[in-house]
Design goal:
CATH architecture of the largest domain: 2-Layer Sandwich
Cofactor: (R)-lipoate
Keywords: Acyltransferase, Lipoyl, Transferase, Tricarboxylic acid cycle
Function: E2 component of the 2-oxoglutarate dehydrogenase (OGDH) complex which catalyzes the second step in the conversion of 2-oxoglutarate to succinyl-CoA and CO(2).
Helix content: 25-40%
Oligomer: single chain
GO biological process, one term: L-lysine catabolic process to acetyl-CoA via saccharopine
Number of domains: 4
CATH class of the largest domain: Alpha Beta
CATH superfamily of the largest domain: Chloramphenicol acetyltransferase-like domain
GO molecular function: dihydrolipoyllysine-residue succinyltransferase activity
Structural class: alpha+beta
Strand content: 25-35%
Amino acid sequence: MATDVRVPTLGESVTEATVATWFKKPGDAVAVDDMLCELETDKVTVEVHAPVAGKLIEIVAPEGTTVGVAALLAQISAAGAASEPQKKSAKAAASVKEDKMIDVMVPALGESVSEATVATWFKKPGDAVAQDEMLCELETDKVSVEVPAPAAGVLAEILVAEGATVAAGARLAVISADGAGVVAAPVATAVAPAKAKDVEDSPAAKKAMAEAGIARDAIAASGRDGRVMKEDVAKAVASGVAAAAVAAPATPITVPRAPVLADDVAREERVKMTRLRQTIARRLKDAQNTAAMLTTYNEVDMSGVMALRNEYKDVFEKKHGVKLGFMSFFVKACCHALKEVPEVNAEIDGTDLVYKNYVHMGVAVGTPSGLVVPVLRDADGMGFSAIEKKIAELGVRARDGKLSIAEMQGGSFTISNGGVYGSLMSSPILNPPQSGILGMHKIQDRPVVVAGQIVIRPMMYLALSYDHRVVDGKGAVTFLVRVKEALEDPRRLLMDL
């Protein structure tokens, strides 16, 4: 029986792709997850992998063909086709197994996420489990994913130990409906990384590297098993990697740890960084290395916001069922300022500037696992109550590790509130590929001069970090002044001034 190979989901708003390269030909043997071909869309390059092992018997869509989502690309015949009696026997055996043994699979991990690390098993072989009871937790480089039991029974076998890396759709464990076949948990083993020398880069990436004059070692690869993709080359070009980088192969630079006394080593604890923490570290360092980052500061008198909030907070909560906080004022003030200074809401794509006629506002939230940035989509069209409700909902989901991939993608500008931790002044780091991030800080009574008189006012320092490649100093200062004006006189927001 043949298995169809179809075009996978291509991403938001992408409906078709072009078949760029076939890496297999009819008659070739293929293993599960072998790369069969590569598709190119107007945004990204997409790899298509073999869903089963067997033989590639037919290519339906040759190179150069334009195909839609779910279109048939090829067919694979299953490996080791059995005779009819064998098939019947196997089918009967499978039926018995299906009646008693249920596989626990890795769930969908989200767009562009192909693997995860098994963080924690909450059950061990022999434990009884109820349907939908949490069995284990997986960590990707973006979020934590809970894996519930698909059926009630006994956890018969754990196939993947803590610390191992698994692909989407892989088997994690087996549940026995009748409690039979219990096997001890496996010893934790880390999955060895693929050897880079055996990895074939995307043909489109090779062409782009040759045209740009950039060495492969100067590019951060994001493809499967360390393959360089076309978009990786575009990012390298955008970050200013010079053509002279075609020189000698780059040698990884590591900073050795300073010598530590043996007595001190015995009192230290070494803990492996979570995938989320590794991603945070990588992205923040990439932001520093890529963007021409600069920070400008101002301060705002919060008297107007605090007076308005105190006057209406009770009736606001009674009507809308949510408390009136400060964040909604800042979101509205930023949306207002972004209309006047749209480059702060733009991003670089290769040699183009992309101006966005919407505001997807990222709101940085601290969690026990690290900083995450859920996104308020179309925040510029939301009222105060809608903003407060959405922030409250996303905050709870973030702290519980329940945010989906989609809820953290697509932000165009970010607000970070270090003031909740007592920070008086800081320089926030950009959230790539965004060009601006506003840092809020602690509200503190300070003496200021108003109309020639020294008075005490609740003041807050504001910090705008921005990408100087996109935003000029005048635009950055204008943005911050508009935010200050809107907060010091919130009536300006109502009259769009």
